[in-house]
Amino acid sequence: MSTLCEIRDLSVTYDDQPNPALGHVTLDIAAGRRLAIIGESGSGKSTLARTLAGLLPPRTRVTGEIQWTGGTPPCPGRDLGLVFQDPSSSLNPVLTIGEQVAEGARQHVGLGWKQALARAQEMLERVRIAQADQVLRAYPHQLSGGQRQRVVIAAALAAKPTILLADEATSALDVVVQAEIVALLDDLVRDAQMTLIFITHDIALASGFADRLAIFKDGRLMEAGPTASVLAAPAQGYTRTLLQSHLDLTSPPLVEEAAT
Ligand SMILES: Nc1ncnc2c1ncn2[C@@H]1O[C@H](COP(=O)(O)OP(=O)(O)OP(=O)(O)O)[C@@H](O)[C@H]1O
Ligand SMILES: [Mg+2]
């Protein structure tokens, strides 16, 4: 499996901050695979996402390097599709769904308006939105939260990116919709052989489909490796804690069950 990029000793410090948001991160990202970036709030996950997408705020200090295969970083919106936590803030309330999904194809692929709308409909169908032709003419407030996140994914896919970067893309959704969106992302990246970088605080969710896990805490990469080996033998005490807290929350209460 070829490498998409090599992150070497990467540190990122925001302008007004004394401490780095990311410190000395070294990590390889494989092309065409599903990598989950896992960590609690403030562990630096979104900072890594912004660094990969070239979207850090001005005056952020970055040391170390990211080497992209092919030499140049991916262009966000074209080579790199982005999906964030809150679909409402990603969508413009006064533009139709069709206009917004078509925009990426117009801007980055240079399709004409009519072709871009056809692409938009194709993408809405691909994210399994029913009656896509009608949804094209709808506005964001007319859709459910889960549908809106599907629309954002469709918009991210419209320029046919090679990488999809999803930052807490399912965290605002209820568990059933969350599972549907994860299954959808899984299918989409498999079909298109895209690289998926899936950011979440939920190790259980990520373990269900990611090929590799990278566990962050306080801006440090604690552990990275194939999902099965991280789960079978978590090298770091922190990963064990994450796994344990998940087990505590989701295991059935055996004693009580036996008593009823
Ligand atoms: N624009 C910014 N300016 C200054 N500090 C920031 C900025 N963005 C993030 N930080 C700080 O950098 C650290 C890492 O934040 P980051 O957003 O990367 O974490 P995260 O793992 O994505 O957290 P969450 O799960 O809450 O989204 C935090 O201490 C945060 O306060
Ligand atoms: Mg974040």
What does this structure look like?
Strands 5-6-7-3-8-9 form a six-stranded mixed β-sheet, sandwiched between helices. Strands 2-1-4 form a three-stranded antiparallel β-sheet, covered by helices on one side. It is globular, with a radius of gyration of 19 Å. It has two domains: 1-74 and 164-180 and 192-260, P-loop containing nucleotide triphosphate hydrolases (Rossmann fold, 3-Layer(aba) Sandwich); 79-161, P-loop containing nucleotide triphosphate hydrolases (Rossmann fold), CATH 3.40.50.300. 41% of the residues lie in helices and 24% in strands. The chain has 260 residues and is α/β, with parallel strands linked by helices. It binds adenosine-5'-triphosphate and magnesium ion. The site of adenosine-5'-triphosphate has 14 residues, from α1.
Write a concise keyword list for the protein shown above.
about 260 residues, alpha/beta, Rossmann fold, 2 domains, six-stranded mixed sheet, three-stranded antiparallel sheet, 9 strands, about 40% helix, globular, disordered C terminus, binds adenosine-5'-triphosphate, binds magnesium ion
Overall mean pLDDT stands at 91
Q: Which CATH top level class of the largest domain fits?
A: Alpha Beta
Find the structural class using helix and strand composition. Answer: alpha/beta
Question: Which bin fits the share of residues in helices?
Answer: 40-55%
- Just name the CATH architecture of the largest domain: 3-Layer(aba) Sandwich
Strand order of the largest sheet: 5-6-7-3-8-9
Low-confidence stretches: 251-260
Question: In whole angstroms, how far apart are the ends?
Answer: 51 Å
Proportion of β residues? 15-25%
Sheet having the most strands: 6 strands, mixed
Tell me the name of the CATH homologous superfamily of the largest domain: P-loop containing nucleotide triphosphate hydrolases
CA radius of gyration is: 19 Å
Bound molecules: adenosine-5'-triphosphate, magnesium ion
The count of domains is 2
According to CATH, the fold-level topology of the largest domain is: Rossmann fold
Domain ABC transporter: 7-243
Subcellular location: Cell inner membrane
InterPro entries: AAA+_ATPase (IPR003593), ABC_Ni/Peptide_Import (IPR050388), ABC_transporter-like_ATP-bd (IPR003439), ABC_transporter-like_CS (IPR017871), P-loop_NTPase (IPR027417)
Pfam families: ABC_tran (PF00005)
